[in-house]
User: Fold these one by one.
Assistant:
Number 1:
Amino acid sequence: MSSVQDTVFDIIAKESGIDRARITPDATLKDLEIQSLDAVQIIFEIEDHFKITMPDRDPKFDTESVKGLIETVEKLLAEQATQPVP
Amino acid sequence: MQRVVITGMGAVTPLGLGATATWSAMREGRVAIGPITSMPRDGLRFGIAAEVQGFDPLAHFEEKKLILLDRVSQFALVAAREAIAQSGIDFAADGLGENTAVVIGTGIGGEQTHDEASRRLYAENNPRTHPLTIVRLMANAPASQICIEHKLTGPSFATSSACASANHALAQAFHMVRSGVADAAVAGGSEACITLGVIRAWEAMRVMADDTCRPFSRQRRGMVLGEGAAVFVLETLERAQRRGAAILAEFAGAGMSADAGDIVFPSEAGAAKAIARALADGGIGIDEVGYVNAHGTGTPANDPTESKAIRRVFGAHADALAVSSTKSMHAHALGAAGAIELVATIGALRDGVVPPTMNFLDPDPECDLDYVANAARERPVRVALSNSFAFGGLNAVLALRRAP
């Protein structure tokens, strides 16, 4: 398990109050019964932790999987790493 | 029970300074949403809003008085002056002012004062807070300032229910005049919420559009913040006729409800309940209604929920309704929204012209009503509703009839 995935799982479990064992990469937010406000808080905590800015669109409850979130975080971190330090 | 009418309206909005200018812009389908000009945009994620333009406080207030007034009170006072002047009502005659109510809704209150005080305190480490900070920022300041300026001593207060604040204010005023608790009322809503802190807070909720406000359209991307005020004079039909006042519309009913569900996600049942109660309160048959000024924020969640709520109440008649969101033009003025939208609702009743939903691209299968897309439409309207559904699940719907 990547450390990004580990952290994202931790954040989802903490913010939504669901059992961490229920979270899998393929689960959608809807599968996990995560409400819209919890989803917004999850994204906020992810942004705060990784010091990134996620694309500003509503999480798609039916289709957005946890894996999708992790991939977005990894992509943003990779972009950050390749940028020259100002 | 008295019949209640509206005999004056005033407005300060991104569409114009004055109710007439605002309504003309709505008929023309003018969109006042654009890049924010009142602050540097580099700290903002999207940097669009609908701002009141060309409002010069010194044109309306002496400097000494201005010290007491946050922008939210300035807007309310200027709108109230216009409404009272149009109504021609004389509060000094026969002690009318003694029992005239003032109810002004605001979602946030004196936000610019609060913002400035916080900046001095936290950013500048300046421990000296301005002594008039409280007087300016308290949410009842707009109502209190109107009472003071016009010597109105009836039951007066502010209402606060986020995006439904103005409709709750108008509903309270209406019920007081109808029941005889007050002889007349000055009521509406005001908001001046465009500060860095408030914009960032809305952006953080991820409900804001980055392009413009496209209610009910498949490509809608969220809401856009606005600001402004609208204020109305309510009195009994009997008094208005006796003094020969020009009646703008009859205030027929008001319905309110709480979702008691999610703190932000809207409820079809809660919205439908408020609509049905407004109709029942006004003794209105569903087939009498021709126009609904929708809450229509342009968020993914509101628009389908509101459309379903309208369909739930009106059944087959829903297809005969014109439904539009003027937020597509003046954006979402939060606690002033319902009041600004009442200008549109009254305009539709008076002129037989339904204002459009602008910025409309493609229809959304989830939103299946007639949204009067992109151009105003001539259509006689006998009865119209104005919806407001707030974050927090507090709903208020107003029902108006064409002037008798």
Number 2:
Amino acid sequence: MAKSYEEINARIARGEAVVLTADEVSRMAAEASPAEIARKVDVVTTATFGAMCSSGCFINFGHTSPPLRMESITLNGVPLFGGVAAVDAYIGATEVSPDDPSYGGAHLIEALVRGDELLLKARGKGTDCYPRREIETWIRKDLVNEITMVSPRNAYQNYAAATNTTDKVLHTYMGSLLPRKGNVNYSTSGQLSPLLNDPYLRTIGVGTRVFLAGAQGFVSWRGTQFNTEKPRNDRGIPESNAATLMLTGDVKQMSADYLRAAYYEKYGVTLYIGIGIPIPVLDEDMAAAVSVRDRDIPALICDYGTEGHPAIARTNYEALRSGFVEIAGKKTRTAPLSSLKKAREIAQALKAQVASGVFPLAAPVQALPERSAVSSLPVRERSR
Amino acid sequence: MREKYVLEYSSAVVDEPVVYTLIKRFDIKVNILRAEISSGQEGSMLVELEGESEKLAASRDYLASLSVSLMPISRSLSVREDSCVHCGACTGVCFSGCLSMEREAWELQVDRDKCIACALCVEACPFGAIELKFGE
């Protein structure tokens, strides 16, 4: 029995829709078949709250009088990318202050969301249409035009777990990795994670409305490093890093409850973002997909002490969540890097929004690519 | 009884054989878990003291008489609740078992008595939420 988006939205409008979180539907699946779930459940909410380095936002400061073509721009000492029109700039989450490498773009974005005041300094050459040469002023989110998040790569589908076989502590974007496989860090909300509940991206594509740090945002494109070519298990779940999403949303509508700047020791600055995606249970196949449990999700454990980060063990998220896994016979402690507590809060918040009708569902305007591979960068001579 | 303290020494006491006195005069088992002491300078030491309660009390008085400050380890470590998002990054480096995830609500739980003041968590926390008072 198939359901259309229109039927689901009509049920939401009548207040009859059954909306569950992905955790709730996974528990239900212990006793209910996909056919029953497809009949009873209309929408399943998924969520994640983790570090997403490839994030940032465009900001339009508005023109001063006389105007300046902003070329060299800093905000609280953090350089912005100013190679777009006169008063547009891009705040990259991982850009850092030359004076303080633990403070960067992610902190600016969080401060903007919180409504803090930030010191803007900019210089230009001075031209006929933009005669001013420099500016120094304090900005705030209500004193600038648009602040639009455009994050090239968010919501990674099944990012691999990390360990370290060397004799030294490694400071990585997967956290502090203790020597000689002293720990395993993983970063996923597992059975609650958006792209693990729709592994072939049937319902998630260009134009899909998403919960983006408390605002309503959209999937604007495939994320960078989008990869469909990873081996999949019998549920269709890729064994490691696969699909990604490019997300867009209004930073002025976001909440610091769901967006936090972070600093990984001796690695750098990154941004934790809360993302939620509602998945319509269109048919039995989708019902089976959203019923996924942590034990069904494969995880590779990669060695960050070896170039190329080769996988040295295989496990699943139920095992990682247990607190210990075995690597080659050695019992190793595991720790999460993304907050499951926050992800659950987002899934619940999104569930309430979908059920109340303020978060309508729609079919993607265009599907994400069915085939897309990732290549590495060759270091080479120029072609003749 | 067993108690864990961070001892803070002034430079005047660094030459005093404090640990020897604790053992010899007060019959205390002293387990030094971490120490940063150099002669002529200030020092910090994390110790576990084990003994009868009256003898422990007497040894605390002895330390106080030397102006060695005693801070129970439970007050050395603090986690700022407004900064912590309960991600769990700190639990990966905490091999003493002080920091761990509660596996129902997935919240950080802190068993301060297990802290050994290694400070790895302070570096591992992506939000700068953990403070450890030891030295400095």
Number 3:
Amino acid sequence: MTHTRVLIIGSGPSGLTAAIYTARAQLNPIVIEGEPSSTTDQPGGQLMLTTEIENFPGFPEAITGPELMANMRAQAARFGADLRVTKVQKLDTTVRPFRAWLTDDVEPSITADTVILATGARSLMMGIPGEERLLSHGLSTCATCDGFFFRGQDIAVVGGGDSAMEEALFLTRFASSVTVVHRRDTLRASKIMQERAFANEKIRFAWNSQPVEVLGDDRVSGMRLRDTLTGEERTLDVTGIFVAIGHVPNTSLVTNDVELEEGGYVRTGPGSYTSIDGLFAAGDVQDHVYRQAITSAGSGCIAAIDAERWLEAQGL
Amino acid sequence: MSENITTLTDATFNEVIGASDKPVLVDFWAEWCGPCKMIAPILEELAVEQADKFAIAKLDVDVNVATATQYSVMSIPTLLLFKNGEVVARLVGAKPKGALLQEITASL
């Protein structure tokens, strides 16, 4: 069993920024990075599934998500953060120091004076028939991973936010047409992304359309859509479907103990303080409003400083 | 790039897979794929640790479209395990080392 003053769970922009700050403050943080996955909890977080990041300050020519995360990781490692590619199975915040299990053992693997929860969020799925069966067989949650395989095909993106527009625009590099399927008649996406999408000749819109079934035997052949105004159903013939309908926070480690907000996000404030003394939260696990790489990194910095001052005040 | 992992191309694929006396695990990947980067270090480790059980090779789908299409790869990373030239296992998506090894070993 190892004891640490700061245990950081998650390795997206918030987790790694917290790691850089606490490592530089000589707190020797342990960072549990997560495990390789194409969907959730992966080391590097959601940016590992993106391409160009154009709005992270300091990179005027843009940088790719995986590159940015590799840089942040190297920076945390340089200051001595103990980075581990594994998952926290269980966390106990009812006793002090907190206890974390990385295995199924009875004994905890790590005890920690403070925990910075930076577990992020994962993509929501549609929860309709055919979806699970055809995942990776034409249905995808990662345009940058899979878009390449849809050269010259007609495909669809489900969703109306920035992520959906980003995916749709990216996919026009390969596909002959991209239909944005959205259940309302206006987009949630930012103005700049909307304008880019409307200006792109390959992008079409299926407004007021609710997906009800993914069609196809061993690969996607189409999607059943229900008109949200008339209730009428129709089939959209597409060979690829990319789902970008939003996110849910990864709170399973703390659900029973910490105060959550509506929507299941961890309630924070002031700063990164949660309802549990010594437990701090940063990044998308506590933010359903801004959800940017830069705000996430900023909140990781806040959590690091909060944790450092809390430890000082406790004499730990 | 590790010397323990063979780089395949459309031109060399059949020859290398056909000539192998051990099962071969082929990693279909691309430079722009984040999850592919996540499993790359795991494959490097397995190439050494499991060298007596199976060989590992990789194919960049970006420049070797024909082979990727032939094997219906639609999502990367995809790992295909070849035994006597036939596909005996298909693993799609990044996974932890233990899970990957377990699925590979089950099909050896």
Number 4:
Amino acid sequence: MSFFKRLKNKLTTQSDTVTEKFKDGLTKTRASFSTRINDLVKNYRKVDEEFFEELEEILIEADVGVSTVMDLIDELKDEARTQNIKETEELQGVISEKLAELLDKGDDDTKLNIQEDELTVILFVGVNGVGKTTSIGKLAHKLKQEGKSVLMAAGDTFRAGAIDQLQVWGNRVGVDVIKHSEGADPAAVVFDAVKSAKTRGVDVLLCDTAGRLQNKVNLMNELEKIKRVIGRELPGAPHEVLLVVDATTGQNAMNQAKTFSQATDVSGIVLTKLDGTAKGGIVLAIRHELEIPVKLVGLGEKVEDLYEFDADQFVYGLFSNILPNVEEEESVDRY
Amino acid sequence: MAFEGLADRLQQTLQKVRGKGKVTEADVKVMMREVRLALLEADVNFKVVKRFVAKVKERAIGQEVLESLTPGQQVVKVVNEELTALMGGEQSKIAVANKPPTVVMMVGLQGAGKTTSTGKLANHLRKKNNRQPLLVAADVYRPAAINQLQTLGKQLSMPVFDLGTDVSPVEIAKQGIAKAKEEHHDYVIIDTAGRLHIDEGLMGELAQIKEIAKPDEILLVVDAMTGQDAVNVAESFHEQLGLTGVVLTKLDGDTRGGAALSIKSVTDTPIKFVGMGEKLDALEPFHPERMASRILGMGDVLSLIEKAQTNVDEKKAKELEEKMRTMSFTFDDFLEQLTQVRSMGPLDELLGMLPGAGQMKQLKNVKVDEKQLNHVEAIIQSMTKGEKLHPETINASRKKRIAKGSGRSVQEVNRLLKQFEDMKKMMKQMSNMQKGKKKGGMGNMKFPFM
Ligand SMILES: Nc1nc2c(ncn2[C@@H]2O[C@H](COP(=O)(O)OP(=O)(O)O)[C@@H](O)[C@H]2O)c(=O)[nH]1
Ligand SMILES: Nc1nc2c(ncn2[C@@H]2O[C@H](COP(=O)(O)OP(=O)(O)O)[C@@H](O)[C@H]2O)c(=O)[nH]1
Ligand SMILES: [Mg+2]
Ligand SMILES: [Mg+2]
């Protein structure tokens, strides 16, 4: 099935499942992005150097990633030349096709890998201050609402007040927290937590870790060790290693994804703070280059502000007005 | 690092435009494309990049290329100068109120590093300026935020004022300042909750705190990894609060930190400090020139350019060229050359600093043996004046004497003599090549110390 067909199908059959909140959060992204592409096509009737420059800027501004953008622009220029396209309107279709190619990985599974009838361990990793602890609190709430029993491990023993912070979330959503004192070995905390989760027979264990910049070798080694300890205690675990990425991050997010993947084999991304004006476009480059899908999206600081990521919705949200033949449809304006 | 530095990029582009006396418009055009990409990759906002590139272009065209630089290096020099100028001077001073206490307000997005920077700044003020700050915990939203500041206070043995989470931040700020006056603290640092610049309610709250606290400093704390959105954030905070400075955090990572340039350019307030780690002593003054070369990703090219400018005497360089042409290059000249080059720093490092050195096959795995260099020097120094001028007169017995004098073997003396002859021949070739008389590679170039 073609990308657009799949997209359209999804929209007609699935639109109800997309929460209002998700849409609200993406409005800014979408509005500025697609409006500008539309304006662009209107303002520049001719396909020329200036037009491409502007298009390039629109993509760059979304933090999509410089090399990704440059490649795309080069391809578009080639297309325009070989197909002898002179009017920008004609190029619109090609633009959206190229974008879709870039973004569509087809069978990407963005659902969390939650085991049936056995313990699932999810490890949260990422740089400092991106929203790991908050996302754990929010996810705990979400899982509980789905009827799962949850346990949390206070694996950030380094940052001042980090254990208390997770405990507050624990109290807020009614989930126990396994913790040691500040300065304790995080691997030991996680070890205890896995054991405890097994004896208690909980469904999901969420492990917090201290934020660390990916160029700190010892800290990355520590993370590897934490993961190893989990695997030793429960073969096959962790079932998910989620890299938390702040949507305001620029090109460095690519480095983060690469290095954290090397250390812990990241299985998905939680994209936080998308309720701001930042567009988080770098996840497209990450998905394209490293094939790591975004699985969850953070749209605020409250318990309910975590959403499952729908790649098609995201893409559609970003590029809706430049997708071919969709703009006439009623439902489209709403996304 | 994932991206190559500007130096390498320019090097590739510049193979075409090397060795001309003036920087031409065409040269600048190709080079500016690379400068633009480098800045965008460093997360400098695209609008800021546009303005910047236009300015540099104007300045670079028609510039005389310094004797010791290639046109590429010349352009890098202009770029760097402009970038440094844009970054502003070093201004890591915190305001002092006429009537104490001086009030500092920390503001910014969620997770930027406000609370940590509050602790660091307090530590800095006490250590460097002998001040007695009071920390005020005005983040009542983030879970355990007060706790976090209290823990930092404990680590520093510094008092932290709080009223729990049920009192408004405006009230906390007010009472905190009153308390500071009462207890004769000379500084009050207010740690506020992170908020989005588009959150009208919470931005309004900051404005209220500002009205009550009348801060002498409002510092925007920004994550150095921020992307294109940095301009929006900085602009909003500045518009609504009137910032007096910026703290750029997490610069101990491997980000280029182009956000610094964006923020500086839209707010025109100084970046006062940078965060270089999670510990409480990891706060450093901001160095504009370091930030400039970090953003450009040029490593030490700039210091090489500086060194080249100060160390290489132009007249001597001309003389040398003349000698190369006429083959009158002697061991004395060689020794002088060697000393001059060595005065610029360890040779390995120098080679590493040369843009594009990584691409030259011959230099790829060169490990310059400093010991070997010392030996070469010793051998030359053991020659007589006449021998240095006329190495062809060095016969077997002289060789033995030189070997003995320098503590090296006769074989080593032989090797050096042979290499010196080869080098002279090659120099002749090179100088001919430069004048375009003869085509030929430098592939077999071999210095005595390689
Ligand atoms: N606006 C917004 N703030 C968030 C989101 N996720 C986390 N935060 C805030 O970001 C800050 C850092 O979050 P935290 O979970 O402590 O980050 P950690 O250091 O990675 O554990 C806190 O102030 C959170 O409330 C989000 O999706 N939107
Ligand atoms: N590596 C590094 N981490 C930092 C720096 N400044 C703050 N952090 C970390 O960033 C995270 C968020 O800091 P915090 O002060 O809680 O941010 P706030 O939400 O703005 O108050 C914490 O994990 C800090 O330890 C820095 O300069 N370098
Ligand atoms: Mg945390
Ligand atoms: Mg804080």
